[in-house]
Amino acid sequence: MTEPNLPRIPSAPSSVDIAITGRCNLNCKYCYYADEMAASHDLPTERWLTFFEELGNLAVQRIYITGGEPLTRPDLFELVDGIIANRMRYALLTNGTLVTEEVLSQFEDGKRRQRLDYIQISVDGSRAEVHNRSRPDSFALVVDGLRRLVENGLPVFARVTVNRHNVDDLENITHLLLEDIGVCSFSTNETFPCGIIERQAEEIILTPAQRQQAMETLTKLAALHNGRIQANAGPLALARKFKKIEEALTAGETSFPGRGTLCACGSVFTKVAVNPDGTIVPCHLLDAPSMGSVGVDDLQQIWLEHPLLDKLRRRHTIPLQTLDTCRDCPYQGFCTGGCPAVGFFLTGELNGRNPMECYRVHKGEDPYFSLE
Questions:
Q1: Are strands 15-19 and 62-66 parallel, antiparallel or unpaired?
Q2: Using CA atoms, how far apart are residues 35 and 38, in angstroms rounded to an integer?
Q3: Minimal CB count within 10 Å: which of 96, 137, 139, 301?
Q4: How confident is the model at residue 269, as a pLDDT?
Q5: Burial of 257 (0-12, 13-18, 19+ CB in 10 A)
Q6: Residue 37 has pLDDT above 60, yes or no
Q7: Other CB atoms within 10 Å distance of the CB of residue 330
Q8: Cα separation, 92 vs 72, whole angstroms
Q9: At what angle do helices 235-250 and 208-224 cross, to 10 degrees?
């Protein structure tokens, strides 16, 4: 039974993030789970198809296909057909380098185009010298893949991960994507310390000055392009959040409705994720232990009863004033604690805040954490 202060828990997730392979044809500088992927093996076709039947029976609505690089699997479209056969929609997250004319033709079979929500392609520079520093030897192929998708009328948008290599290139990236190639929109995020990034943080993670620069640049570009630049995390999302806090403070307000607890992550009420080897986890970002395995454990039982999901959901009831890092913070009434996965990487605490999303940290007033 759902507690009064918690969102209602549906009988099954509405969507599932599935990394269908750990293989990738690139070696990106900021891949957040490259180490785990390299050590895993991929489930065979039949086990995925059987799992899709289970998801269909649970009335799951949508599958997000990711990797690794999904297009390295020769059975990708057989898997897509399995998703469709079980009355689900799908989205595809790819690096774009393997989008050939042959791949494009595959979307015309059956209901593959009709059931496709979108294709997301990562672009990290307006030219090879910038993009390839994050995603080696891939710029020409990525741009070619994007152009093919746009010209064929498939629903595609780009993802830009802001880092030290491209923070000075954001205006040019915007021109390339929105005006030259003509994608409908792109989203932004930033690199954070996890996976292989931990070993090269000084090379790629934004400095505080660069993050402020990215916040200002993206805010200006988003205003110019009227909704075509989006963000759920990273510099643009932070800029928007911090602006609202500052406006509220100026108006004499001390809180927002529904804030003041560790309630940032709503994903645990709507979705779970699966690794290439069939391991079921809360999400691909959270370095958490396995909650079960595809074809071995009952997904609905995991969804409703697993103690790790229960713990993550109950974070929503934990007041920030009970945390040592937040109890004396004058801004806690505006805060949700931030992404638990990033917070866990940075602090080792599952029931703690994410300092990269903390207004007090960004103002340089926090006694516990510095972004320097």
A1: parallel
A2: 5
A3: 301
A4: 97
A5: exposed
A6: no
A7: 11
A8: 13
A9: 90
Give the integer Cα–Cα distance in Å for 132 and 126. Answer: 10
**3-class DSSP state for residue 280?**
strand
Q: In what order do the strands lie in the sheet with 62-66?
A: 229-230, 186-190, 156-162, 116-122, 89-94, 62-66, 15-19, 271-274, 279-281, 292-293
Beta pairing partners, 63? 16, 90
At 293 the pLDDT is 97
Amino acid 170 reads: L
Residues 316-372 pLDDT 10s: 999 999 999 999 999 999 999 999 998 888 888 999 999 999 999 999 999 988 877
Q: In angstroms, rounded to a whole number, what is the distance separating the alpha carbons of residues 29 and 208? A: 20
pLDDT digits 0-9 by tens, 248-285: 999 999 999 999 999 999 999 999 999 999 999 999 98
Closest CA to 77 of 37, 105, 43: 105
The confidence score (pLDDT) of residue 202 equals: 65
């999303």: which residue's tokens? 357
Q: 343: alpha, beta or left, given left = phi > 0 and alpha = psi -120 to 50?
A: alpha
Model confidence, pTM: 0.93
**For the chain, first and last CA: distance in Å?**
44
How high is the pLDDT of residue 327? Answer: 95
Q: Hey, what are 325's tokens?
A: 């890092």
Pairing state between β 279-281 and 292-293: antiparallel
- Strand, helix or coil for residue 305: helix
HSE value, Cβ hemisphere, 13 Å, CA-based, for 267 = 17
